[in-house]
Amino acid sequence: MKFILLQFAIILLGCAIATRAAEEKNYKFILDEVFAEKESEDVGKIKVELVKSEEGVVINGQAEQLVDLDNEWKVKIAFKSAEDGNREYNSLMALPPMGVCDFMKFYYRMYIYESLVKYSNAPSPYVCPVVKDNYIVKDYPLISDKFKKFLRPGYHQIEASLYNGDEEKMKYIIEGHVVEETEN
């Protein structure tokens, strides 16, 4: 589930920075960094590798989930942006905390599952709780071309957290930026 939360946050980063430009410019999202600000060894262990090439970024990783996750566990996501590289982020929006099962049935099912399952043993959005298991993703492309027309230039950050009750168990930070593509 933690890896799925991380994937969802990355996809939401593309959506959160989405705004249709008056001119049809071609923008490209570049993932800069993904890191854990807080991890809980009793919940799970995640290893994520970003593989960058001229074609883009793919994600490889493994998440060993050590507990079953149900609606007693909450997902919380916050979006931030900065206009320049100094990375002084301003808050854009925070989603209200949502139970893991509800998150899986709605956001995960709508935005992640169909593309992620092609590259992983991702759990079904229709089964709750999300059972403890070892989830693996291989060569998962970062951002779909369908989001390109909605991107806007700047630096962007997502904070994705997992809570058990009032206790934050895990928190991941995803940072990236958007640039205008030039034709060669």
UniProtKB/TrEMBL annotation:
Residues 1-21 form the signal peptide. Keywords: Signal. Transmembrane segments: none annotated. It comes from the Eukaryota. It holds the Pfam family DUF1091. PANTHER family: CHEMOSENSORY PROTEIN A 29A-RELATED, CHEMOSENSORY PROTEIN A 87A. This is (Mediterranean fruit fly) hypothetical protein. It comes from Ceratitis capitata (Mediterranean fruit fly).
